[in-house]
Write a structure and sequence with these properties.
- With 273 residues, the chain is mostly helical.
- The chain is built from twelve helices and five strands.
- It has helices spanning 28-48, 53-69, 77-91, 99-111, 126-139, 150-156, 162-175, 180-183, 186-200, 204-212, 217-235, 239-249, and strands spanning 2-3, 12-13, 18-19, 254-255, 261-262.
- The strands form two sheets. A three-stranded mixed beta sheet has the order 1-5-4.
- The longest helix is centred in the N-terminal third of the chain and has 21 residues, at 28-48.
- 39% of the residues are buried.
- Residues 1-17 and 256-273 have low confidence and may be disordered.
Length: 273
């Protein structure tokens, strides 16, 4: 079983954007690429289970919140990913999801779409997901409601047309792979996605629209720049070639003789729950 306990220090390096244990073997770009990879894994897991995008987005935010507070060594991210999907499906009230089916889908994806990244079987069982869920709840202090950018996005986009909305929707989905969903309010992420989409489609109406709204264009462009930085990193990221080496360097929990995972200490620093 995965084991997690509290430590006296947070172990967080704010500039690094991750746990200090990870920074010993992973660069900042490595961590960003891991979050892209596991967001892709969660997306595939959700789509295969026919879950709504809202559930997938919430699960991705849970995953990011956990690993901003804790090292990858604390819980295997290949276990945390389905656990986040399992919890998000309940929080978003999309109907019951079978843990066994979730595990079966994980195993299938790791043998097919993501076989370039892992060679081992998916060894986890329903009890592992349930216990991991308990620790995830503890780390997040049961703060489970995630306000996503999709609702403000559709509201704002009424004035800009379906073409701009469609592209902006995909941009919001992509933005889950960087930290803007944690560091900025959802309406600002939505506006930034619309801003990028309007430029892509050369929408002349958008320039006046952004001038008329009460929100500072400087704040919008700050978020837009972070999303563009994500795309720049992503464009040069050869996932199939790079991820195996990054996963090899990534700190991992140790499997004990009893079949339980023994990872590093996890922390829930006050003010970051």
């Amino acid at each position: 079983r995965p084991r997690m306990s509290h430590s006296g220090s947070s172990g967080i390096n704010a500039e690094y954007g991750g746990h200090e244990i990870d920074s010993k073997s992973l660069s900042l770009d490595d961590v960003k690429k891991l979050h892209i990879f596991f967001a892709n894994f969660i997306q595939a897991l959700g789509e295969t289970n026919k879950l709504r995008q809202q559930v997938i987005a919430t699960a991705t935010v849970y995953f990011k919140r956990f690993y901003i507070l804790n090292s990858f060594k604390s819980i295997d991210p290949f276990l945390m990913a389905p656990t986040c999907i399992f919890l998000a499906s309940k929080v978003e009230e999309c109907g019951p999801i079978s843990i066994q089916r979730l595990i079966t889908v994980c195993s299938s994806l790791m043998k097919s779409k993501f076989n370039f990244a892992v060679t081992n079987e998916f060894l986890y069982r329903p009890q592992h997901v349930l216990e991991c869920e308990f620790y995830l709840l503890e780390i997040m202090d049961c703060c489970l409601i995630v306000h996503q950018p999709y609702r403000p996005l559709t509201t704002y986009a009424e004035s800009l047309g379906p073409e701009v909305l469609n592209t902006a929707w995909h941009i919001v989905n992509d933005a889950l792979r960087c930290d803007v969903v944690l560091t900025h309010p959802p309406h600002l992420v939505a506006l930034s996605a619309l801003h990028i989409s309007s430029v892509i489609h050369n929408n002349e109406q958008a320039q006046q629209w952004f001038t008329d709204i009460s929100i500072s264009i400087e704040k919008i462009t700050q978020v837009s720049e972070k999303i563009i930085q994500l795309y720049e990193l992503w464009r040069g990221f050869d996932e199939k070639k790079e991820i195996p080496a990054i996963l090899f360097r990534m700190p991992r929990p140790r499997m004990s003789h009893s079949g339980s995972l023994s990872g590093s200490r996890c922390s829930t620093p006050s003010g970051m729950r």
